[in-house]
């Protein structure tokens, strides 16, 4: 008789965990509070809804750690990557998707499985029995967050995450802006022109920084602190760190040539990336913000080409909840005090859609093995998935634990032979080793399941 796995949260991690477990024969119940209980960031009740960027970042599996994670999830039959590939948008070397079509497809595929049931409603306490995966993500409800805090006898850890605005493409002035991916990256013309670029001269940039610094910002509630994740800083926070910070971050002008003024090098460039398949929506890359709505429209319309911009969504800011996983979780992602409960996704302290989905994939497989009386060998730390789970379950320093994207710094050092010491050779050695070890781990999984 099939056993039941309960998953709280239908985001990237929850959806992927459900897919892995259901395809292995388990009955799966996904407990999703939306749309009954709304959040400020979500717009639909779909599973795997993307609320911030529509990008899964680099798809380069030879030179980039997140691209390697894409490769590992594809090799493991991951639903999130399959649907991302099916709804891919041009984005140079990145993997960007049509967010609505992607979420609808994930929902359709999961709910079509006869052994998957979506049960609406909020889970507001930690269950005492049964087999569970908590994958509630950064917007964990207050009641459940309080239940987790009470169980772990630890202060809730959180940082603030900010959402970038989305602009209607028809409102962008293309006599000032132009289409080009940085360094013309991409294999097709569509890829090489995936971004819209808005140039700034020095005077415009300086005025823009002044406006950013002076704009009305969202204020924090009493007792809250702004512990931002460095990979998702609001632009005004970056500007506060130095007037040139944005020019060396999301507004860097390198790898781009303005066809309207080919002999004039822009002092800074604002990039917009396509957000849907129709090409009617573009999000402003790296422009997460905590400015108030009125200030956003005033400041963003200072950008050349966006003077008459219409916004489909303005930026926002929310509290992003995560647990101190190195202290609280065992090597199989189980809560030490309640081993019937696993945690997966962003709530474990990984950062990003792909990392969250990868931890969901692993949690789903680990739960399946446990419920069917099997054991899985540890995931090799030499793989992207293994490096992440090793980091959150003990590799990180618990006292200073903060959310982390996958990166080669989490991998065991690679032995470069024959004097290959340059960065491309080193990264290729990391990814070659990871792919071999990951395929070996998947083979061991299949053998144990036979």
UniProtKB/TrEMBL annotation:
NCBIfam families: gid_trmFO (TIGR00137), PRK05335.1 (NF003739). Its main location: cytoplasm. This is Methylenetetrahydrofolate--tRNA-(uracil-5-)-methyltransferase TrmFO. Pfam families: GIDA. Its cofactor is FAD. PANTHER family: GLUCOSE INHIBITED DIVISION PROTEIN A, METHYLENETETRAHYDROFOLATE--TRNA-(URACIL-5-)-METHYLTRANSFERASE TRMFO. Its EC number is 2.1.1.74. It comes from the Bacteria. Belongs to the MnmG family. TrmFO subfamily. FAD binds at residues 9-14. It comes from Palleronia caenipelagi. It is an enzyme of class 2 (transferase). Catalyzes the folate-dependent formation of 5-methyl-uridine at position 54 (M-5-U54) in all tRNAs. Keywords: Cytoplasm, FAD, Flavoprotein, Methyltransferase, NAD, NADP, Transferase, tRNA processing. InterPro entries: FAD/NAD-bd_sf, MnmG-rel, MnmG_N, TrmFO. One of its GO terms (biological process) is tRNA methylation. It is found in: Cytoplasm. GO terms for cellular component: cytosol. It catalyses: uridine(54) in tRNA + (6R)-5,10-methylene-5,6,7,8-tetrahydrofolate + NADPH + H(+) = 5-methyluridine(54) in tRNA + (6S)-5,6,7,8-tetrahydrofolate + NADP(+); uridine(54) in tRNA + (6R)-5,10-methylene-5,6,7,8-tetrahydrofolate + NADH + H(+) = 5-methyluridine(54) in tRNA + (6S)-5,6,7,8-tetrahydrofolate + NAD(+). GO terms for molecular function: flavin adenine dinucleotide binding; tRNA (uracil(54)-C5)-methyltransferase activity, 5,10-methylenetetrahydrofolate-dependent. Signal peptide: none annotated. Residues 5-374 form the MnmG N-terminal domain.
